[in-house]
Amino acid sequence: MVSRNERMLRRRARKQAAERYEKHRRRNLLAKPGEHEFVVVLDQLKAGFNVPKIFRSAEVFGAHEVHLINIGPFDPAAAKGALKRVPAHFHSDFDACYQGLIERGYTFYILEADADDALWNADLPDKSAFIFGHEELGIRFDKQLYPEIRALSIPQFGKIESLNVSVAASVVMYEYVRQRKGC
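RE: above sequence
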């Protein structure tokens, strides 16, 4: 059983996290795109743990921007300030995000464990949009409505068939940058 004091401390921690989120989101209005043209699209991820870590990687790898689809407030502490530095665009549904990025010339990619094309064999265009789905449920939109979205896999050699979404996002961003920098 949780004590009254513990409940009070949890409530205070949630309030402080919400205040940090609002502060960082306001500062995000001044964020400048990174040096690369790729964007990250987060499709209805859980608001907590992975979203700020993906922002952190997006900042490190020079992402142009991050698009959040139907993602509520999260504690930006794990982002280490990246939410203030990487432009964030908030959408209520995937289609609005998709149409806006298509108009700007982006090519879309999703990750699927059984995709025929491996990430390291893909020739990623400058304007790449990488979609990452919910940690348990995957992408939440009907993929058949968007036949031009290309599926890629991250080759894996162990017995576990998936990576944490923030780790997978970092691998994809690294590969994009590697193709441009010749690492």
